[in-house]
Amino acid sequence: MPPPVLLGTYTPPALRKGDRVTCLYRDAECVVTSWSDAPIQWPRVRAIGHRGGSGLLVDATLLRAIRTESVNALMHHFGVGHRCVWCWRKAFGITQLGTEGSRRLHAEAIAKGAATLKAKVWTEAERRVKRRLSKGRRPPGPPAAKRWTPAMDARLGTEEDDVLGREFGKTTEAVRVRRAKLGLPSAYDHRKREPWPRPEP
Fold first, then answer.
1. Stretch 161-178: mean pLDDT
2. DSSP labels for 118-157?
3. How many whole angstroms separate alpha carbon 13 and alpha carbon 114?
4. Of all helices (H) and strands (E), which one includes residue 14?
5. What is the distance between the alpha carbons of residues 171 and 163, in angstroms, rounded to a whole number?
6. Residue 195 pLDDT more than 70?
7. Which of 55, 47, 41, 42 is nearest to 22 (CA)?
8. With left for phi above 0 and alpha for psi between -120 and 50, is residue 18 left, alpha or beta?
9. CA of residue 74 relative to chain centroid, distance
10. pTM higher than 0.90 for the full model?
11. Which residues of 54-87 are buried (b: 16+ CB within 10 A; e: fewer)?
């Protein structure tokens, strides 16, 4: 597999072991302790007056690489680990796809996956499985138990909503909404509109 391509050119700073320099990542004055043996050899520094090991000097040039290149390119060409790149990006507010290199790598991976699927020769059995799965993701509608039937609609307003809800296996609110949608009065309103029976002589 070929190494990831860099989008820019990065020249190491002209420093020697023992030189003092400011590291943008550590935000402190550091001393050069050694040089890396990565494809792009880079000075390693240790913060003066602080405990801890050494790491690559993040100057303006390396910061440009951090803001431009993909994770894989930084790891390969500068000889650092994934966690180191993650810490750099977190310190400088760079998101997962926040660099041009990462976006290009992501687009290439998507294009490669799409080309692989397009080139695949599907058998008839595989096509049937895909069709069945596709249909399963798009249900035709609510199940029969939840549908309103003409017989149910005809009963709306003849009994109280809660009574019909228990009979239909639906909530009182569902019955009320359906009745209002059809413009039907409630059983209470229906009874109010009926004339009182006249007393017999």
1. 89
2. HH----HHHHHHHHHHHHHHS--SS-GGGS--HHHHHHBT
3. 42
4. none
5. 10
6. no
7. 47
8. left
9. 24
10. no
11. ebbbbbebbeebbbbbbbbbbbbbbbbeeebbee
Token look-up 């926040």 returns: 98
Q: Which residues contact 135 (CB under 8 A, 6 or more apart)?
A: none
User: Are the beta carbons of 176 and 157 closer than 8 angstroms?
Assistant: no
Strands 28-35 and 55-56: unpaired
* More confident position, 22 or 52: 22
Amino acid at 124: E
Kind of pairing between the strands at 55-56 and 20-23: unpaired
Q: Give the pLDDT of residue 196.
A: 43
Closest CA to 63 of 5, 105, 7, 23: 23
Encoded tokens for 176: 């009320």
